[in-house]
Metallothionein (Nesterenkonia natronophila), 67 residues
Amino acid sequence: MAACDTCGNDYENPMTITQQGMTHVFDSFECAMHMMAPSCAHCGVRIIGHGTRTGGSIYCCDHCAPD
C-alpha cells in the first residue's frame, strides 16, 4: 500500500505519474488533477484540457485570456 501524495489515503492499487522528472503517487485521477493540473492565470480554476496560452501564461478559456 502507498499513501496518496494529495490526500494521504493509503490505497492498495495506487497509480504513479511522472512529470518533469518528479514521480507522484495517487489513489485517483481526481487527486492527480488537483496536484498536477495547471491553474488559470485569471480565475485560478484547474485546467483539465488544453486551455489557452497567451503571453507565456495559460488560461482555462478565451473569456479569461486577455485580448
Remarks:
- Residues 1-36 form one domain.
- The chain has a mean pLDDT of 94.
- Residues 16 and 25 are 5 Å apart (CA to CA).
